[in-house]
Amino acid sequence: MTSFSLSSAFRAVCRPLSQQPARLQRLSTAPIRLAEEPTTSRPNVGASSLFDNITVETEKTQQLEQGGEKTAKKQYQWSSANMKTSPRKLNMLARQIRNLPVDEAIKQMEFSSKRTASKILHNLAFAKKNATEQKDMKNLIVAQAWVGKGRYIKRIKPHGRGQFGVMHHKEAHIKFLLEEAPEVEQVKASRRKIRGWNDTKKVWTPLKENKPIYNAKAFYNW
Predict the structure, then answer these.
(1) Spatial separation of the C-alpha atoms in residues 94 and 44, rounded to whole Å
(2) In this structure, is the dihedral angle defined by the CA atoms of residues 41, 44, 49 and 52, taken in order, positive or negative?
(3) For 105, which of 66, 73, 100, 183 could close a Cys bridge (C-beta 3.0–4.6 Å)?
(4) Nearest CA-CA partner of 97 in 74, 70, 127, 67
(5) pTM metric for this prediction
(6) CA distance 68 to 60
(7) Is 31 helix (H, G, I), strand (E, B) or coil?
(8) 145: part of which helix (H) or strand (E)?
(9) In a 3-state reduction of DSSP, which class is residue 55?
(10) How far apart are CA 221 and CA 117, in angstroms?
(11) Residue 73 has what pLDDT?
């Protein structure tokens, strides 16, 4: 038995090497499996997206040149310095000039009795000048106007009987965003087509002394 096992082992070793790859090909099915799998559209792991970004940017520039996308709106933002007033008082003037043409907002600040109205008037004039000269903007309106809190300085407020309190010297600043007014045709096209939605002009009527005024506006109407 030992001689037979040794002889069989010797024959297996001496077998020609050309027969072994054929046997291995029969046993392994990896190449067949790889050939049957469909090709994926995902990029390789080590691929760089640098050139893909360049192609996307060139396509966007071509679309802008051809007029495929809308051009961005021209805007000009202005921020004032801190004023010696509270944010609540300054917000009243910000609501008054919001969504008004710049010339109309300057006119409202000119005839306003508030102390900070003159400073807002100068800021509006400077913002209008810079927007027209730097960005070539016309028909400006105050699209947005908001107020920010400035310094709050604490000081001693003396009271009677040797007591004291704390008073605050408040400061605030105003910011507004200027944009170009849309055309009249675009405004009319954007309105809803419902019953009773017409551009009717109201006839001026004198005020009656015995009739109260409802929903009065915060600015002058002339």
Answers:
(1) 56
(2) negative
(3) 100
(4) 127
(5) 0.54
(6) 9
(7) helix
(8) strand 140-158
(9) helix
(10) 18
(11) 83
